[in-house]
């Protein structure tokens, strides 16, 4: 090893290497000075953008010689050279502006999203259904079922705030009327268009009903984040609810897409040995002028009736002893309007009605039969929407406050009361259609109604 350290050949190689390195250092300094001078000239002549480009080239050159540099180039930048004293480049300001814009964009997105989240949380906390004071599934039943149970189906047009057909639909006044006049006269009530979305009117109705001794089930509530309202169905019963089931149809067409329409089912115990299956539904509406119904609307309703049929089968589970009542706003005009005048007795079935009844009864599978109690009772389809009255010899709309202008005088029969007695001794009787006609008084800016209820009725009700 000692011999190798004093080897003349190695010493000569070391001497050459040192000489070469020192030459490179001197060359690097010269290049640095030259580059600095030329860059300063370019900065003076061409402006900051060119200077930045020259600076990049200088840094690239310096990076290549880092290993052999003695720090003289670094001294050049630290001792007040042209770059250190020059203002920030345009790319520097572009990066800073970019960061400011990104932060501003994040704030612009975060603030409304945060407020929206807060609104959703408040909505979920505020618009919750009232508690059920009459416990579902209770074994308590009436000992003596001596008085007839009074049934009612009623589309109450209690739509979400801001949704109305005309200038005013008097939601609060009609709600007060329902609470004070309707609830006390019936035992089992099915409401349609009792929407709880975005308001507490239906909560008021439920609380008042519970004070009257009703238990209830209703359509599930949906928040605004789902872009959908509830189905607007409410089932009230003074008798114990032994079973409750809820069905939501696939989303409908037109503005019905914004509501999860469906059906409700309750097994109601009338006494210790008598029960009845109660169903209510509200199906796809039609929005054509003058009550016209498109084939697309009709097909959507038929699909919903198919779901309702399956729902009845699933919830009765082969029970062939408990009768079935299906009532509500089926939105199928049962009347054939192809011939005759508006005042003719509506005795002829429409094709849509015939198809509806076929689908609901399983298409000939003999699963269960349903009797149209209104038609059986009257011998014709009673008008439940777009009705008329005679003013002398003139036919005029019976109601124009709730009914949309293009739907007046369409004389439709769209509410149904269907009955399947099966092997029960129960009888459904005394079917009536109660008129609910809103009258607007220009003088006192108030409204009135023209209905009178019989305490023993089984009624169809529609504005």
Automatic annotation (TrEMBL):
InterPro entries on file: Endo/exonu/phosph_ase_sf, Endo/exonuclease/phosphatase, Sph/SMPD2-like
Keyword Membrane: yes
Biased composition (Acidic residues): 442-455
Coiled-coil blocks: none
Gene Ontology molecular-function annotations: sphingomyelin phosphodiesterase activity
An example Gene Ontology CC term for this record: cytoplasm
UniProt keyword annotations, A-Z: Membrane, Transmembrane, Transmembrane helix
Region annotated Disordered, chain positions: 441-463
Family classification: Belongs to the neutral sphingomyelinase family.
Name of the protein described by the UniProt record: Endonuclease/exonuclease/phosphatase domain-containing protein
Species: Absidia glauca
Lineage: Eukaryota, Fungi, Fungi incertae sedis, Mucoromycota, Mucoromycotina
